[in-house]
Amino acid sequence: MARIFSGIQPSGELHIGNYLGAVKNWTHLQETHPGAIYCVVDYHAITGAYDPAVLRARRWGMAKSLLAAGIDPAKASLFMQSDVPEHTELSWIFTTITPLGDLERQTQFKDKSSKMESIPAGLLMYPVLQSADILLYRADSVPVGEDQVQHLELARDTSRKFNAKFGVEYFPEPKPLLTPTRRIMGLDGNAKMSKSLGNTVGLLESDEEIWQKLRPAMTDPQRVRKSDPGRPEVCNIFQLHKAFSAEPTVEHVRQQCETAGWGCMDCKKVLHEGMVQELTPIRRRAEALDAEPQRVLDALASGAATARGLAQETMRQVREIVGLDGLSLPA
Ligand code: TRP
After folding, report:
1. Which atom of ligand 1 is nearest to the CA of 127?
2. Can you give the pLDDT of all 331 residues of the chain as single tens digits?
3. How far apart, in whole angstroms, are the C-alpha atoms of residue 108 and residue 106?
4. 207-288: same fold as 5-183+293-322?
5. Is 192 among the catalytic positions?
6. What is the largest CA-CA distance in the chain?
7. Closest by Cα among 129, 71, 43, 132 to 282
8. How is the chain split into domains, by residue range?
9. Atom 8 in ligand 1: which residue has the minimum CA distance?
10. Which CATH class is domain 207-288?
11. Is CATH 3.40.440.10 the right assignment for the domain spanning 5-183+293-322?
């Protein structure tokens, strides 16, 4: 059976972009793949400038909203990366077999470092740590979005190099499990939904807050008057309908848009109903966790215990393979 591993940056509470792009899929996979492992990658979050107090709050917010979104500690392990220090240990071993050129070629590194005066080495090593995250659990299936495909290629290269260098068949070659939902654009319709761009809807926002964001949200730019027929396939709101509304509603919306039967406001009202229906139970669970925050800590502690057990066993074997196991007296 495939071993699932995935990670998410501690960016604070989830928004509907990370929920639809990744986490909703994680909740399905925990049903079909018992023992799935989900990690809040806080070591990854310190490669840029940050405030420790803010990081702490965001780690908490992410853990809480993952549980609220439906990650079930009885089915999957959820933990903080920094609670399992073996991630950094394996990462070091991988840095010794990773060609510098492969790291410098990573698109994400090029994008981020091009804007920097002084580039922290950690930014370059980021994908090595990511490979270690996955291979520490010898995971072969990694549910991620398209933007992580290049990093997973590197993880496969690393796995192959390790096995070849030491003449073992130890690590698997992890493959991306691409999320069915296509990339969710921000409400401004211009860029990927992202917290730093302020174009998101938070997963835990109230019905009213959601409506205040949907009301002015970008639709088909060519549809100026209500009498203009719309083009659902280029409309961001329609993409959200596909994620939040029932199939017959999606078809009805498509038809009303193309025939200019409905205006964009009518369409948004129906989307709002669909969102409220899906997000209300999530918000209720978050409120329950706010009332009993110890449950968040308990979930993380039990996830970390499971992860640590697996990670320690992998590192015991890796140390043996690479010649860093305990010495004994010469015979
Ligand atoms: N780099 C991933 C992202 O930005 C996060 C991540 C870190 C990850 N380690 C991982 C994803 C391991 C999957 C598997 O989204």
Report:
1. 1
2. 899 999 999 999 999 999 999 999 999 999 999 999 999 999 999 999 999 999 999 999 999 999 999 999 999 999 999 999 999 999 999 999 999 999 999 999 999 999 999 999 999 999 999 999 999 999 999 999 888 999 999 999 999 999 999 999 999 999 999 987 767 889 988 788 888 888 999 999 999 999 999 999 999 999 989 999 999 999 999 999 999 999 999 999 999 999 999 999 999 999 999 999 999 999 999 999 999 999 999 999 999 999 999 999 999 999 999 999 999 999 8
3. 6
4. no
5. yes
6. 90
7. 71
8. 5-183+293-322, 207-288
9. 7
10. mainly alpha
11. no
